């Protein structure tokens, strides 16, 4: 009896250790993706004098949530099955000011050599019937553990601030009504999504016009940043400095 109990304890320890390593694998993948996004933010801040990323939020599904999803999909209950079939265990949400920023960030992430694109769903060009808009990416990134290399999937959702606000509101309403939302609220949500989409399009047009004017104003000047301060230098001065150094 004592030997049997000891074996059960050892088996429990082994299962706990394997589950811990499994969850850590997704944490490390999330850390790597967040580092990549932070690098892009820093580069845009200091080189391009413009940051397309307003804010980011990341999360890892709990084991309980993963288990519920496995049961709902009627999949085998194993770590291999989870890794193969559940792609949103690690997730990052990126909020941008403009629609064009969404595709800009998506392209930069997809072009990185150590990232493999598994799936791309564009709910901006093809919004869901309820009005939901966002760009969803499933990306795979290598994670180097102490004794192995694992390719781990991370879900990236990229959307504008307006899209994010609408999605957050919809989630709260569905949670409050336990997914049985009254028809008149569903209609109002759809109308709100249309208004948000029109706002995004209008802001995009303003953004493009401002950028055009800015290019015209700065075509004879050069910009550089020093200690977080932006300086404008006339083109002739930059040319003179360049020729004197030559």
UniProtKB/TrEMBL annotation:
Extract the PANTHER family matched here. Answer: GTP PYROPHOSPHOKINASE YJBM (PTHR47837), GTP PYROPHOSPHOKINASE YWAC (PTHR47837:SF2)
Q: What CDD domains does this protein's entry cite?
A: NT_Rel-Spo_like
Organism field:
Alkalihalophilus lindianensis
- The segment(s) forming the RelA/SpoT domain are 58-181
Output the SMART domains linked to this UniProt entry: RelA_SpoT
Regions annotated as coiled coil: 189-216
Q: Cite the entry's keywords alphabetically.
A: Coiled coil
Q: Which InterPro entries does the UniProt entry name for this protein?
A: GTP_Pyrophosphokinase, NT_sf, RelA_SpoT
Kindly provide the name given to this protein in its UniProt entry: GTP pyrophosphokinase family protein
Q: Check the record and name the Pfam families matching this protein.
A: RelA_SpoT
Give the taxonomic lineage as stored in the record.
Answer: Bacteria, Bacillati, Bacillota, Bacilli, Bacillales
Pathway(s) annotated for this protein in UniProt: Purine metabolism; ppGpp biosynthesis; ppGpp from GTP: step 1/2
